[in-house]
Amino acid sequence: MKKVYITMGPPGCGKGTQTAHLADFLKIPHIDTGALLRAEIAAETPDGIEAKRKIDKGQLVPPELVGRVIKNRLLEPDAKNGYILDGFPRSMEQTKILEQIQEEVGIEVQNIAFYFDIANEALIERLINRRSCPVCGRIYNIISKKPKIEGKCDVDGADLIQRSDDNEETAKLRFITYEEQTKPILDYFRGKGILHTINADQTIEAVWDDIKEFIVD
Ligand SMILES: [Zn+2]
Question: Does 130 map to a domain?
Fold first, then answer.
């Protein structure tokens, strides 16, 4: 049975860093749903064109479309030994779609979910301290992950910026929306005994140590 890891957590919880690390450690692909969709859009595939039309209208990309894109990715040879899903599922509807896709792909899998738990206040503090590079996209934190030269990207020296949506009000709203959508999935995974809650309000190294405890062979 192949292991499938599902990483979940509110925006800013550090999930991206840990997921990349996990993929590296386990030598299985990190399937980032957002990146998959962006690639479809860039390649102007029929799904990409439809997704872009929805996004341009400010609508959600239909879950069936996202499911189809993910299924195609799971059929690629490198996913045969397991994979890590990032950014999917985000609702109960998507959770059901995922189970259906996994059945259709036909590789017997065991899902293991990690939830990166962090208190609202800690998350907000993290978000308002966040700076990003407009050139390469690298993320910094003026408290915990400072650039070598204040205000400049380590890679390309560009001036770091604060994203306009990294303010307290927007952060709170994003957090509440995320919690509402995710809570039913967490309950569902917990009921199946496959949910591991990780304390995400620690250093990157400490979070990684906690994750390793739950990696099963
Ligand atoms: Zn940069």
Answer: no
Rounded to the nearest whole angstrom, what is the distance from the C-alpha of residue 132 to the centroid of ligand 1? 8
Per-residue pLDDT of 79-124, as tens digits, reads 999 999 998 998 999 999 999 999 999 889 999 999 999 998 888 8
> How far is ligand 1, taken at its centre, from the CA of residue 152, in Å?
8
Enumerate the active-site residues: 15, 90, 130, 163, 174
Q: Residue 205 above 70 pLDDT?
A: yes
Residue 146 belongs to some domain of the structure: no
Distance between CA atoms of residues 109 and 111, nearest Å: 6
pTM: 0.82
Query: What are 135-187's pLDDT values in tens digits?
Result: 998 889 998 889 999 999 999 999 999 977 777 888 888 888 888 989 999 99
CA 139–ligand 1 middle distance (angstroms): 9
Give the distance (Å) from ligand 1 centre to CA of residue 177.
30
Domain of 110, in residue numbers? 2-119+167-213
Tell how far the Cα of 71 is from the centroid of ligand 1, in angstroms: 33
**Is 28 within 8 Å of 56 (Cβ atoms)?**
no
Residue 56's CATH number: 3.40.50.300
Domain count across the chain: 1
What percentage of the chain has pLDDT greater than the value 90? 65
User: Is 156 buried (19+), middle (13-18) or exposed (0-12) by CB count in 10 A?
Assistant: exposed
Distance, in Å, from the CA atom of 171 to the CA atom of 26, rounded to the nearest integer, reads 32
